Structure formats: C-alpha cells, structure tokens
C-alpha cells in the first residue's frame, strides 16, 4: 500500500491539492485544490448529482454557509458539537483529550466518556504532551465547540456560525421545500457545498480538515407508509462490519447482500439498507477500490441519541505519518492502512424537524390525507364566560383552557355535578353546567405528521483523496520506474493530451492542432503540451491520470505512416498508430462508459508499436 | 418594466430563491436557492466555466473561504475594506452614512469623501434616521470593516476572515500556480465560489447580500510583452458609458466597437477591452437583455488607487421598493429601473502580487528569459574587511553594504581617492583602494518580473437575478393572463415537462413514461407532473421557464391520432401534435444551441392545434 505522504507529494506536484496560504506559513486544516484536483472534485460532484439528485428524482438546493444562532440552538450543535480539549501547561499546545487517551490506553471511544473520567484517565496513565512531553496530569479537560463563530451586521451584531453540516440549510427550509414537493411524501432534497469544523488539531493531512465539502441527501418519509424500492438493490453485494462483529474479539467484516442483511436484521432500517445498496454502485463507479472498502455500523456508544441505526462507509488509505515505504528505504509501511469515514448513513427519525418546529414555532409537518375520511368523536367544552369571569377574575381564561384539557383527557369527569381543575397550582371548582361539556362527532380528512429523515452524508474531499490514492500505481516501463493514476475516465481531470514531438516543424504543429480540434469537437477535454521531452510529458500525464496521450511526430506528416499519430494508453503504456481521421471517434468510444470497448480493439485494428517512445 | 417585487414573489413561489432562515424570522442579506434557482445558477456557472476557463485555456482552482489575517493585511482589506456607518441614537439602527448622504443631497460618490466631511454633510443637511426620523446630526460616522471575522483553532486561536473576494485565494497561491503554468506568462486562473461582505444594511432584495458567489478570472501578464488576441473581439459591438459622458450633464451611453473604443483611447487597457468583448458575447448567450445593459467606466474618484482602468458591466433591473405596477393598481413603476453592477473589469497592475511578496517574504515573480542572453556591465565592490573591521567596528558590515549601493548608483565616485557613504545618518570616509571597486561584465539570461493582473470579476447571483428578470414576461393566452420566463434553454432549470392528462388510465400513463424515458435518454432534463389541471401545470412550467411541455392525452392512445402527443412551446404557447417516436429527436434539435431550427419547423411538419388545452 502506498504511503499517504507519497500521494500528498504527488498531489502537490501535479496540482491536485496542497496546504493553502503556504506563502504565509500555512494554516493547519485548510487545503486548496489545484487545477487537476478541482477538476476531479467537480467530476465527482457531477457523478454524485447524477446518481443522488437526478436519477433519484430529488431536488437540489443551495443555502448560505453562515446561519444564525437560533438554528444551532435548535439543532443541538450549540450545546453538543464539542470535542474534549486539554492544553499543555508547558508549550501551550492544545490536544484532543479523547484521542490522547485512546492512543495511550486500551480505551476505545473515549469521546463518549464524561469529562471527569477522561481527566482521571490522564492522571492514572500519566499521559504527556505529544509535542513537548510535559505531564498533562491534573490539567483540566474542556469541551470546545467546533463551530466557527462570527458576527452578522455592525456593532455587536448578532452571532452567526459557519454551518457544521449542509443538512441544516435543508431542515430549516422544510416549510417551503415541502410546498415545492407539493406536500407529498416521500421526497428528497440534496445539497453540495462547504461545511466547517474548527478542529482542535487537524494534523492528519487532508483527512481531517477545517473546511470541507459535503454532499448530503435528506429524504423525508412517512415512517408508517413509505417503503424504499428495495428490489432495486436487494442483490447488491456489500461488505459489512456490524457492531456485533466489532465487539467480538474474533469478529470481522464479511460480504453479503443488502437483501439478506435487511432480512436478518443486521441492517436495522430498510431505508438505510436501500441507500447502502445505491451508494455501493456509486463508489464502484467513481473508482473506490472495493477491496479496501466496508460499511461499518456505529457501536451503541457512537450513535447519536436520536439515531435508530447508522452506518459509515469507510475506505482504507495509507497510514498517515509513515514515510514512503515502497521505495525501499525509510520505515516500512504498516501492513494495514487507516480506515477513514467517507460517508455516514443515518436514520435521523423526526429529531431535526421536531426540534426546529419547537424552537421556531413554525409548522414542520406535512398534512397526510387519509384514504377515506375518518369520523371521530371529540370531547369539547364551551364554558359560560359570563359566569367564569366574575367568579375567577383574571384566571377565567386559564380555567376555560384547563376545562378543555380535562375534557380531552377525562371526559367522564363531566358526569359529576362539579369538576375540579388546577390553575397555577391552585384547585378550582367549576359547576359542570357552566362548562357546557359535549361530545362532537367530526370528520377528519387526515392528520399533520412530522416526517422522518434518512440521510446519506458524503464527505467529498475524503472521497477525492480515496479515489486518487486507490488509483495510485507504480510500475516499470522500458526499464524506467513510473508512477501513474489509474483514474476512471469519468473522474480524470483530462481525457487526452496531445503532444507535438518537436516545436519547430509547422506541418507537425498544424497536424497537432487539427487533432486537438477534432478531439475537442468530440467533447473531450484535451491538454496540449509541447514542453520538454516526450518521456517527461508522458510522465506528467501519467501522474495526472490522463487516460490517453496522442503524439504527433514526423512519421505522421512525411514518413512511412502518413496521417497517423501514436495513441498511448495510460495503464498499459501500450502504443498504437492510428489514422488521424479516426482518432477522435476511437478515443470517444474508449472513453464512453456505456461502450465496453477496450484498448485491445485498437491494437487489433492498427499497428502496435513495440517500444515506447518515452526512452527515445 | 417589471417591478423587482414581482420577480421576487415569483422566485419564492417557484423555487428560484427566497430569504433564508424564514422560520426564525430570517437574517437580512442571506438567500437560499430553491431547486429551480440552484439549477439556473448551476447552468450559469457551467456557461461561465465553458467560456472563461475551458475555451480561454485557463486553470480553475478551489481555495478555502476562510483565510488567515496576514493575507488581508497584505491585500489591504484589513485596513481599507470599510463602509461608513452612522448609528441612530434613538432606535439604534445602523445606516450607511455615504448612502444617506447621496440619497438626500446632490452629492454623488460620497463613499470617496473623508469621514469628517460626511459628518459635516449630515449636520449641514440635518439628515435623519430613515427608520425612526430621529436627527443624526452630531452622531459620529465610523469606518466599519466589511469582513466577517472568526477565530481559527482552540483558545484565543488566530484570527481568520471569510474572504471578501475569491481572488485572494488565487493571488496568495501564485508561487505554486506559476509552476503549474510552467513559469510561462500569460496564464489565467479562475475560481467560482462563495465570497462574503458583512453589509451594514443589506436591504435591496437579492441585489446587496452578505454571502454571494463570485466567478473570477485572474490573468497574469507580462505588461511589456503580452498582448491580448484583440482581433477576436475588435468588431464586437458594445454599449459604453465612459467617465467623460458620466461627468457631462448631457452625456450618455453610446454604442461602438471594442476595436474603435480602444483605438480612440476610451478604453485605456487593451486587456480590459479584450475582456469586455469576450464578456459581451457571454451576456448575450446567457440571456441578459442587451437593451438594458452597458459597460460603465469608473469615475476617477471610484478607482482603487492601484487600478489603471476599470469598467463595470451593469444591467438595468426593476427599481427596488416600487410595488407591482404592471397589474394596474398600486404605485406606477418608475420609468427607468436601477442599474446594478454585475461584473467588474479591472487592470490591477502588480499591486496584489507585490503586496503579497512584501508581506510574506516569498517570491511572487516569474523568471522572464531574454530572447538572447544580455551582456551587462555591473559595478561591484569587494571591500577589504581586514581594514574595515578595525576601522568601523560593528558598523563595518553596514559600510560594506553602503559601498555596494554607491557602486551601483554612482560608479564614478570611486575615481576619487576616497569615497563617502552614510550609515545610520553618519558620514563615513573610506579609502577607494579598500573598497576594491571594479566593473564586471556579466551575462544575464533573463530577469525576475512581477506579473500584472487583469481581472474580470463576475457577481453570479446578480447575473442570475438579471437573467430571470430580463426573461420575465406577461401576456394573454386564450383570454387568460399568464406570466412566463423566456429563459434561454441553456439556462432553464428543466428542458421539458411531461404531463399525463389524467392519472387513471394505465395506457396513457405508460405512454407518458415512455416519452419521459425517451427524452431523458436523449440527455434532456425532464420534469414529470401529474398533479392538478393541465392549465395549472402549464402555468407552473411557464413560470419556471421550461421551454417545452409534452401532454399525453387519450387521443394519443386510442383516438384519431394514435401514438402522438401535444408539444407546446413556452413563449408562443403554440401547440402541435407530434408522433411519439419523433418527440425526443425534435426537442433535442430545438434545444441544441448549434441548431438554428425554430418551433416553426414543427408546425410546418405536423398538425398545429388551434386552441390551447389550458382552457379545456
């Protein structure tokens, strides 16, 4: 397995991503995508939009990244979106207290422990500062809120926060979004955009950053009625790592089908199971290595209190902090890499909508029409206020309300001559006659229900990283070692590169222009490169992951092979002479995901070249 | 002209955009794009990427939105990105002091006046609070920085700011980006993404918001060598409103060509002129009404101190704050609307890169190779430190430096026996012999230059708004008034809508499914709508701006016209019966921007229906 450092080094060299603000020493946790990384990320987002918005028939919205405090009071982030922090008394460095504990004891999931226990563990195990080795024993552990705070408007303004998840921008607009969905469940709303977490120590390369891109789908369902179309995914094979296996010393991940896992109750929610099946196909499509992939169920201690069932999609990537091992020197890479969460699948119940309804006072429900109107009996009072007023004065209104509440709860109480109600802790006695109790028969056409939410939440940056690392290959071509990215063409930043062999021959440059034009007209993204040796240009495109290179040489304009060019396939480094007028069609077909054709079709049809030009 | 309020009302009703966080009373200056608005915005960004990144051969990057303070110390935003604020002593409301002054006096560009002058103007004209009418006379005017501030990391952290323009994310990474461009000028880097301005009173609907999307292109050029390909745009007609015309009472905007405007010196920079020409075609493409569009030159007082020439693209939109006038009641709309800036074109010189070089200490230059190496004479000293040391002690190094500086500035000085240099204000006398002065002949292959920057900066949200407003139409169809958006198909959220006339006939539903499938297979985005009357469904799609609706009725499955459907064109509301197997091809051709075919081709080939079904 390749070391993360090698991937990060290539990413920087070839314009995928790099630490931002380098000229000013950088700020941990912020990365900039260079031109090739931005293109891969854009391709990945398009593939996500195609699968989870368009094909699922969902609506995509775009909400602001800054939101007011009230939203996060309701969502619980203001109180609960904390990490445990311990500050070194010597060097002043801040550390995640739970991570320190996990790294140095056999405690797992220290995050779920109460603060005093973690403080006790630090004392007990005499944990020390990873930066300067000072003792942390006795230092206070504090809850640190991970939201970035700012102030909206002039003066003291009002507090605002950068959203810690795109989801809140969807939940908070539910009252309007349901109108766009014409008040019919189920419906789904998606959003792709930035989210922010003010991590305490974001050291793990690009894996744990402070600003990142999420692609989230919130599916609003009627939990009593709506079933996912399970038949679409029941036969999809998935690798599952259920909680039971994680808790068992001998337990391990295993392969099964979505249908079987749901039937056996391993996956607790049909909807979550459905999305695991849909997502599985999508990860394959974008190039995640499925041998380094699993769905891991949350352990009971990990589950948010409102979540019924939650699974993470995890990919295995090179362990961070291990120097390049593949080159033979330095530390050996670990056998296994790190498993990182790239997506969370959660059954969030009605938690989010209920909280926003409670805090905002607005309605976050959908009116659910009954198949047939229901006739129900409803107890009601119609108190004689002319009597209540003089008798109870300022309390009369409260007494009337209490009578109505009593009627709904215990209609039989009105059989007696007098009823007693409590107002502000005082017992009040009212004549039953004054209450005017009755039972009405009413027809109800439906009821207001708060939808439940099923959420797949994708971490786009981690998937970009995974896709690049899982495509990272080294081999030897013509006795020279090379590195290349075996990216799926749908993900690659560039479809093809065109190289004029020399830059001082106009006929050759004209032909290169013609080929470039033909390829672009066929809809391919093309990089034109006339700088450096051909070998160097191949190496550059190999590292960028460009599927095909087209070299225009003198043979093509005057030699034995007039009007032909060399087409080279990235992964095999095989080369073939293809007539100029066929190049665009051939490459277009090879790049078409719906066309099965492989490079063999070209080597069968045209002359293959035995030796690669890169050593020429 | 339509009132802005009508557009905003339609935008809310049809899922284009609406004030965010409405359940919590909203926060001024933050909008959410609903599904149709997000689609239009995405289409607009794609069209921008196509024109300004792909076709111009530029690189697109994606940088974080949070940046550290050092970046904005260098860029000048920390000191200078301010608006003038005056707070009402009665109601506490904050107002833009410059806007108040402009609105109530005949002063223009109050923004460029010093604070005490604005305070004086408020006193002089007895300006009052627009909210509560309290006197503002005597209240202090303060500079309010428009950046949103936050804190990065735990504890006191380090200050960070939400970027006020995407450009800084490009400038600050220039040292790396130039490597991706292989150190060759000119090259361009683009970015599309959020930017933030903490506006004092963001009241103008969606026009002046606190969080918005910019699409910026930074072109790095060698000002002495690089010329834009003016021939591509010299004949492009543009409406210009130069500074001279603005300053002239009788002056007005006029139409000319880019080539002529550059030749006559109206446009001061070839590069700025080039981009005006490129942008002109792009605005036309996305549907800006060119009769409500102009390029306005910045007045001398408006220009940033570093900018040589700057033009804004401006569109005319319905005046804000005027109630719907087209419906006949309420206030009459003003004759003219408001002109709003939708793009800025600036020649920023080397200001940005020089500032970042100065503040970061890093190199923000490109090595410019000479065509041929130059032989130059260079005066140098090689002081005898064994003599200087004892003579000048701790100042010896400074004396040596001063001698070198003198040699470069005035080599002849070393002809005398002694030379005088100044160190920390003291005159020092040195023997010429000790300085070891000589003139060396050196060969230089090139020099390090700081590129200049030409920047077109597009405000995507304002262009989305303009495109929607300029597409807003009302007319009568079958004696009923209707509203529709005549959006260019490339911008429309949906290409076509499919309506089964009734929902209780399986044959009809099957046919509707088949048509939907055919259209999607042809690459069209399709909305399927089976809810409400056909008239209502047409009105809905008209207001969304869907170019074509396809209605599947009983005639199509059993009547006189088997296997045909009704295709309706949005703008003309004309309808035609088209065979099912032809629908996808016909609509695909009509929607193809490279195909000139109009709806007439369909009415010529098939039976036109005289009466619209919407009144049926």
TrEMBL record, chains A, B:
Transmembrane segments: none
Subcellular location: Cytoplasm
InterPro entries: aa-tRNA-synt_IIb, aa-tRNA-synth_II, aa-tRNA-synth_II/BPL/LPL, Anticodon-bd, Anticodon-bd_dom_sf, Gly-tRNA_synthase/POLG2, GlyRS-like_core, tRNA-synt_gly
Keywords: Aminoacyl-tRNA synthetase, ATP-binding, Cytoplasm, Ligase, Nucleotide-binding, Protein biosynthesis
Ligase listed as a keyword: yes
Enzyme Commission number(s): 6.1.1.14
GO cellular component: cytoplasm
Entry-linked Gene3D superfamilies: 3.30.40.230, Anticodon-binding domain, Bira Bifunctional Protein, Domain 2
Residues of the Aminoacyl-transfer RNA synthetases class-II family profile domain: 6-489
Major site of localization recorded for this protein: cytoplasm
Key word Aminoacyl-tRNA synthetase present: yes
Domain of life assignment: Archaea
MF (Gene Ontology): ATP binding; glycine-tRNA ligase activity
A biological-process GO annotation: glycyl-tRNA aminoacylation
Family, per entry: Belongs to the class-II aminoacyl-tRNA synthetase family.
Protein name: glycine--tRNA ligase
Organism expressing this protein natively: Halobaculum gomorrense
Lineage summary: Archaea, Methanobacteriati, Methanobacteriota, Stenosarchaea group, Halobacteria
């Amino acid at each position: 397995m390749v070391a993360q450092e090698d991937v990060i080094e290539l990413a920087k060299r070839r314009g995928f991503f790099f630490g931002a603000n380098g000229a000013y020493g950088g700020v941990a946790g912020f990365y900039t995508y260079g031109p090739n990384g931005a293109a891969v990320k854009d391709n990945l987002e398009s593939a996500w939009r195609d699968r989870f918005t368009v094909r699922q028939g969902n609506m995509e919205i775009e909400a602001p990244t800054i939101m007011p405090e009230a939203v996060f009071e309701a969502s619980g982030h203001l109180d609960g979106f904390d990490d445990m922090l311990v500050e070194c008394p010597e060097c002043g460095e801040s550390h995640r207290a739970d991570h320190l504990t996990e790294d140095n004891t056999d405690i797992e999931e220290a995050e779920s422990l109460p603060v005093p226990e973690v403080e006790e563990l630090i004392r007990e195990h005499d944990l020390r500062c990873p930066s300067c080795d000072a003792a942390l024993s006795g230092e206070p552990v504090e809850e640190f809120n991970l939201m970035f705070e700012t102030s909206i408007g002039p003066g003291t303004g009002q507090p605002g926060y950068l959203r810690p998840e795109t989801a809140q921008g969807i939940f908070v607009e539910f009252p309007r979004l349901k109108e766009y969905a014409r008040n019919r469940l189920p419906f789904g709303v998606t959003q792709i955009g930035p989210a922010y977490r003010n991590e305490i120590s974001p050291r793990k390369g690009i894996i744990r950053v402070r600003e990142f891109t999420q692609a989230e789908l919130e599916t609003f369902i009627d939990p009593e009625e709506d079933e996912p179309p399970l038949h679409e995914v029941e036969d999809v094979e998935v690798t599952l790592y259920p909680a039971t296996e994680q808790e068992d010393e001998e337990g391990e991940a295993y392969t099964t089908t979505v249908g079987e896992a749901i039937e056996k109750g391993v996956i607790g929610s049909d909807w979550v199971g459905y999305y695991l099946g849909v997502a599985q196909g999508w990860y394959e499509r974008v190039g995640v290595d499925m041998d380094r992939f699993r769905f891991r169920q949350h352990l009971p201690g990990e589950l948010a209190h409102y979540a019924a069932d939650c699974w993470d999609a995890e990919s295995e990537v090179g362990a961070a902090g291990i120097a390049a091992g593949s080159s033979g020197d330095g530390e050996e890479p670990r056998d296994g890499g790190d498993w990182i969460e790239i997506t969370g699948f959660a059954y969030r119940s009605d938690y989010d909508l209920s909280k926003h309804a409670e805090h905002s006072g607005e309605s976050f429900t959908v009116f659910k029409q009954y198949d047939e109107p229901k006739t129900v009996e409803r107890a009601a009072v119609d108190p004689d206020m002319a009597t209540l007023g003089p008798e109870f004065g300022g309390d009369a209104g409260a007494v009337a309300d209490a009578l109505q509440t009593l009627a709904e709860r215990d209609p039989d109480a009105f059989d007696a001559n007098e009823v007693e109600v409590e107002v502000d802790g005082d017992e009040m006695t009212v004549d039953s006659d004054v209450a005017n109790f009755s039972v009405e028969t009413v027809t109800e056409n439906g009821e207001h229900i708060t939808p439940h939410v099923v959420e797949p939440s994708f971490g786009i940056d981690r998937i970009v990283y995974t896709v690049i690392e899982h495509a990272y290959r080294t081999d030897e071509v013509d006795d020279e070692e090379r590195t290349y990215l075996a990216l799926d063409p749908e993900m690659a930043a560039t479809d093809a590169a065109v190289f004029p062999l020399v830059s001082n021959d106009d006929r050759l440059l004209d032909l290169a222009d013609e080929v470039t034009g033909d390829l672009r007209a066929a809809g391919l993204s093309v990089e034109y490169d006339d700088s450096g040796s051909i070998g160097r240009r191949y190496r550059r495109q190999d590292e960028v992951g460009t599927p095909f290179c087209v070299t225009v040489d003198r043979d093509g304009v005057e030699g034995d092979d007039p009007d032909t060019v060399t087409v080279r396939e990235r992964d095999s480094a095989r080369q073939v002479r293809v007539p100029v007028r066929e190049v665009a069609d051939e490459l277009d077909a090879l790049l078409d995901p719906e066309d099965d054709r492989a490079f063999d079709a070209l080597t069968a049809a045209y002359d293959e070249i035995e030796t690669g030009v890169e050593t020429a």
